[in-house]
Amino acid sequence: MPYFSRLTDIVTCSLTALLNETDNPQEALQDIIREMEGGLAGAQRSVQSARQNEERLQSELEQSRQQVEHFDTEALRLLKENDENAARMALYRKKEASDLAAGLQQQVAVAHSTYEALMTTYRALEARLAEARRKLSEYGLSESDDSKYEALTDTAHQMRQSEVEEELAALKQRLDQS
Questions:
Q1: How far apart are alpha carbons 37 and 129 in whole angstroms?
Q2: pTM of the complete model
Q3: Positive or negative, the Cα torsion across 87, 93, 95, 101?
């Protein structure tokens, strides 16, 4: 029996309430952890996809900006050669490239926002899974050998460790200032 139908269900669930509703909390908790790991794997794929999309759009934006510069330079060169019609066409192309760049800039911002939102959800899922693992150890049980959690979250752990180290440094600085 699945416990969660959506990833947000994992984030918003009350493990205590779920465990209180079952006859065998230890077995239920192991099932819940497996479901959470599956959700975490899916969330990780979504985060990676969003990041790749943002990088792709950023690359397209840079190419578009380069085209704007190219057509600007080309129009100036053509005007120096007294070819007004060709310069005018280069400026039309520059405007097209500029419009495309503006649209891509908006898409990059949306893609970045999507990545950040997915990363926040991913971290919340990770936190909920850590909570479930602590509860499992409270029952005196350990995880089954088929846990894929460690392989899934190496990158997330590194990111989290970096954030914790930065926050620790900031706290130390606050202590030194007081």
A1: 7
A2: 0.73
A3: negative
